[in-house]
Amino acid sequence: MQRRGITIDDTFAEAFPMKATRLVITAHNATWAMHAAVAATGFATSVIACGCEAGIERELEAGQTPDGRPGVAVLMFAVSGKELAKQIERRVGQCVLTCPTTAVFAGLAEGEPANLGRNLRFFGDGWQTSKVIGGVRYWRVPVMDGEFVAQESTPVIKGVGGGNLLLLATGTDAALAGAEAAVAAMRRVPNVILPFPGGVVRSGSKVGSKYAALPASTNDAFCPSLTHLAPRTELDADVRCVLEIVIDGLAETDVAAAMRAGLAALVERGAEAGVRRVSAGNYGGKLGPFHFHLHRLEPAEDAR
After folding, report:
1. SS3 call for 300
2. What is the CB neighbour count within 10 angstroms for residue 245?
3. How far is it, in rounded angstroms, from Cα 176 to Cα 153?
4. Vertex 210, ends 208 and 215: CA angle to 5°?
5. 155-193, pLDDT tens digit by residue?
6. Residues 241 and 169 sit within 8 Å (Cβ to Cβ)
7. How far apart are CA 154 and CA 110, in angstroms?
8. How far from the centroid of its chain's Cα atoms is residue 280's Cα?
9. Residue 260 φ/ψ, nearest 5 degrees
10. What is the pLDDT of residues 2-36, one digit of tens each?
11. Residue ranges of E strands in 61-133
12. CB of 256 within 8 A of CB of 176?
């Protein structure tokens, strides 16, 4: 398929089930809410080694948060509910409780409950108190700037991890510019995060390795330096840089919407901008049940 000179491969991105939750972090002002959110979602690019994938979904106005203060919505994803619960408690305990003036609330209405403030309350060393409002328990933990308020639990739901787009470009400048445009469009889609730095990853991986201890290794078929060396390459000599955008979402439709937005942004720029081809990473259906076929995510007519 060709759109404005860009080849869109007849392939699909293969994604897999995850467990997910949304947290709402508030603070005295937006700056401190963002400090806590950035810290809590740090080192969370891939479940391969980080324990979870997490990112900032959006900033919230005071009128959009439970305590009427500025806030940030973050999404966290893990391969199991048990691992996600561990990551929530660890990250909130070390990065939100510690940040001046913050409070933390559940950002989803329904799901399996995971501890949020339930165990963190013990930091209060017996001085903690709780209050039930509208059937929901909140813990108040005394800290040196006042008190840390945390909802007792946060709902966990089924999510989708690993949606992706591969941008094949004529060079580094073109690939970065295309990726930045696609990321900007995708971040306007609700219920998704792009967990890698700037939303972009250069070290796309394949499942497995020649080294038994590694669960994943470089995606050699898309490495330009191996075009004439690797036994299996997906590239021709004109492709000098490939970047990947990975998407996690609360639902299959959310991931599809983000991928569609990214594709539309790339098509709008046209092939003359340097991204000549768009592909996706899949593993022949062996990794996960969610298959996002690029030709079914065709950009809207006005983006062609």
Report:
1. coil
2. 24
3. 40
4. 25
5. 999 999 999 999 999 999 999 999 999 999 999 999 999
6. yes
7. 9
8. 17
9. -65, -40
10. 999 999 999 999 999 999 999 999 999 999 999 99
11. 71-78, 103-106, 112-115, 129-133
12. no
